[in-house]
Amino acid sequence: MPRGKDQPTLPGLSDADQFGGFGASAFRAAADTPSGFAVRTRSAKKLREAVRTNAPRTPGVYGMLGPKGHVIYVGKAKNLRSRLLSYFRQDSRNPKAGKIIDHTATLVWEHLPDELNALLRELELIRRFRPRYNVLGQPGRQRYVYLCLGRGPGVLAYLSREATGKEAAVYGPFVGRGRLQDAVRRLNYEFKLRDCPTTVPMRFADQGDLFGEERAAKCLRYELGTCLGPCAGFCTAADYTAQVKSVKAFLDGRDSSTLKAIEAEMAKASAGLRFEQAAVLRDRWEALSRLNDRLMFLRSARKNHSFVYPLTGCDNLTRWYMIHGGEVRAVVREPDTPDFAAAAKAAVESVYAQPYSVEATLRRCVDSVLIVTSWFRGNAAEKAKLLTAVEAIGRCGG
């Protein structure tokens, strides 16, 4: 993603003037025109006065730019004026907020119709600009990771910050790399997949005629019974592929036999007073069980969150958020005019025509799945407004 001198520039900035927005957005209705404000000064006092004078008490996103015009921080607010003024309260602000202001040469903000739009727009801008103060762990900002299965011989499970599209399968997003790293390690061990570097060549048993030297495993995992040993020809390609299919069945939620088997071993060890062994088995079960629970949550979110969500903004205009597979795929204005009705109908038909695809979602802003889930968990009453695709088309006169 762009950083430093290669970061995208923001158009329309002057010393203190109207700001045309941070650029295109996947979450802006076509009928909406972006607007905001910009003030350029190194004086914290002047920045504060500009906020007091011009910032509205409405939702939006804001950005702090450094002396060279690069975005150093992006945030969202339910009330822009209140949130921005909090940066200048030295007695109560977080120390990092003061550091951000100290490095700010230009402050910009963009008005948005509602809080959900602000949440989505903040995520979009962080992914676009990669501001350094967001990436370095500013409060409230989490970094996501994905569990991936590679392609080719000797497939293994591993973690990645980004899905590239070259993986055989991708799961996530997840928060908390440390705990997930342990789960992935145990996943490779449980299904006897390798976890050695990709530079280690795979030599399956059915390729035995290629060997002129004595075969030896590259690590102790084969001896410990936690790897099939594909690096030394101790299994066939078919044997290894069968294990890969098993781990994928577990990750897809189609086969929970591994957890049940560990649980049975754990109960047997406890009954036999082998408490050390039971504790080891418990740790194995807990790591994989936590992973399974998170995967179930994501599957449920994507399966159940496919609907049209009408939401009235602070401008008293209603917009339709088209959510498919837990992800906001489009935003259009409510079909209260013939033109808006035609646009809304076309969008509904386009978004919901194709079945949900995990792989396609991962290539877009997948993190919005978590935003949508959290939004309806905190605003449960909003579910009464939801429309099916058929109901939405009916309201468009189709």
Q: What's the oligomerization state?
A: single chain
Give helix and strand order, one letter per element, not per position: EEHEEHHEHHEEEHHHHHEEEHHHH
- State the major sheet: 5 strands, antiparallel
Count of alpha and pi helical runs: 14
Q: For the residues shown, what is the average pLDDT? A: 87
Number of strand segments: 11
Adjacency order of strands in the biggest sheet:
1-2-5-3-4
Q: Can you tell me the overall shape?
A: globular
- Strand proportion, as a percent range, falls in 15-25%
Give me the Rg, rounded.
26 Å
Helical content (DSSP H or I, runs of 4+): 40-55%
Poorly predicted runs: 136-141
**How would you classify the helix and strand content by structural class?**
alpha+beta
Gap from first CA to last CA: 42 Å
